[in-house]
Amino acid sequence: MTNVLTDELLLEYKRCRRRAFLEIYGDPSHQEQPQDFLLKLRRDSLAHKQAILDIAPHQQPNYPYRDWEAGFQATWQLMQQGTERISQGVLLAKTAEGQTLVCSPDLLVKQPGRSIFGDWFYVPTIIKLGKRPKPEYKLLAAFCTQLLAVVQRVWPTAAWLILRRQHPHGVNLDIWIPAMQQLLRECLETLQQQQEPEVFISRQKCGLCQWYSSCHAIAKSQRHLSLLPGVTPRRYQELLSLGLTTVEAIATTQITTLESVLSQEIASDLVQQAQATAQNRAILRHHNYSTLQNFQVLNGSEEYQPPSTPVPDINSLPTADVELYFDIEAEPSLKLDYLLGVLVVERHTHTETFYPLLAEQPTAEASIWQRFLELVWLYPDAPIFHFARYEVEALKRLAKLYHTPSVLMQPLLSRFIDVHQQVMNTVTLPVESYSLKNLARWLGFEWRDRGINGSQCVCLYSQWLETGNRSLLEIIRRYNEDDCRATYHLKQWLADFYRC
Ligand code: SF4
Q1: Residue 181 contacts by C-beta under 8 Å, 6 or more apart in sequence?
Q2: Domain check: are 293 and 338 in the same one?
Q3: Count of CB atoms situated within 10 Å of the CB of 471
């Protein structure tokens, strides 16, 4: 193994053991280029750090990129000189086994007290763009604290996080130092053993990972259970403990078997999901399925009717003469909803008209909001279909921001129908996740521009603001229209499925 373990690598290990392993032993040709959205996040994060650092004077050690020894020497000199604030310094310590541990705290702040340097010591600060003090940030602060203690021969009295809201957050070192030490031990062991950790695909952690394609291909070839919606890492271990290692095994297992490790509802959902995947077909969802099955088993009589057979609510999906399909593109870092896309479907005239209400500049958000209100009130009886919760939340935000009276908003919101929720409540599909992309693609729908997604549109809009290149707006507009059309496609399929 490499002899150097950096704070970055430890953080990657915390997020995914496999990822840390691949960073050292993986074939770099299997690694994709970072997505534009990831690059934007990195740029935003750097800008945030710089803005925080520039609040007060600071000195940065000068050293060649990733030359940790040189960085440590330069930092040591600044510490020895008693520099008040040292930014992006390097701390370095050796383990008993000869590995080098390295971290680069964003800021070291001088405090009165004794240390190897004299009448002062330093405390570390980590600056992150995140909103919440996540455990991984606290572990990182604890790691820097430990290395700082080795370097200055005295424990820092505190460690701080500065997040998006810029209010410093103290890290409880009594809790996070032992947690970090445990993580560090495991990380060193895993990397030393050189045993490739198993693939486990999870939307949240894998979404922006540069190893995604190669990991996903492996998971696909293994028909890995992490590709089954509802299988979390913990549930995966529970399934293995029951000897359930394949989708087919789960599909044919008794729900009562799973109930020894999972709740009744989760067990029932998981079996239905495995059945849909194994048989590659859509299944009408049966809530409390196990209860129904148990009644049948216990009673042993064909005539017996359980007290109430759970039936999914398939009546809350209206079909109207005019239907609206709505999707928003947003720029979260600007708190901006810059594209309100509405597809108007008029069945009697067989027309479909798409209205991209686009704020070419952030200041135009108020005007597209007004145009949106005018458009949707042209069709006062039309249901407004959307996918997932964001559209409703954004609407409430816009109404509040632009003082739209609640007497206008309440009837409008009552027309909203969440197609995602409807799918989740009523049907199980052989998909890897219930995202619009996965659902619509399973139904045969394709977006015109492959490779574009919502995150990428965030980057394209930023580029448009910087460059004024109109072709970028056109890509976003097309993507948004396709999202509306995919929602329409899904809703149509759902309505037909209920009729069968
Ligand atoms: S794709 Fe997922 S499993 Fe693979 S290395 Fe990245 S985070 Fe880990």
Answers
A1: 146
A2: no
A3: 9
In this structure, the answer to whether residues 152 and 68 fall within a common structural domain is yes
Ligand 1 pocket mutation, candidates 14, 136, 190, 209, criterion most atoms within 8 A of CB: 209
Domains contained in the chain, number: 3
Question: Residue 208: inside a domain, yes or no?
Answer: no
How far, in Å, is the centroid of ligand 1 from the Cα of 43?
Answer: 22
Is the pLDDT at 225 greater than 90, yes or no? yes
User: Is 366 in the same domain as 407?
Assistant: yes
CA dihedral 398, 458, 354, 486 (to 10 degrees): -110
Per-residue DSSP letters for 404-468? --HHHHHHHHTTEEEHHHHHHHHEE-S-S--SHHHHHHHTT---SSTT--HHHHHHHHHHHHHH-
200 in contact with ligand 1, CB cutoff 6 A: yes
Rounded Cα distance, 214 and 218, in Å: 6
Q: Could you tell me if the CB of 219 is within 6 A of ligand 1?
A: no
Record the pTM. 0.86
Domain membership of residue 174 as a residue range:
4-193
- pLDDT-derived band at 117 (thresholds 50, 70, 90) equals very high
Read off the pLDDT of residues 311-362 as tens digits, 9 standing for 90 and up. Answer: 556 667 889 999 999 999 999 989 999 999 999 999 999 999 999 999 999 9
**Is the CB of 215 inside a 6 Å radius of any atom of ligand 1?**
yes
pLDDT digits (tens, 9 = 90+) for 38-91: 999 999 999 999 999 999 999 999 999 999 999 999 999 999 999 999 999 999
Say if 374 falls within a structural domain. yes
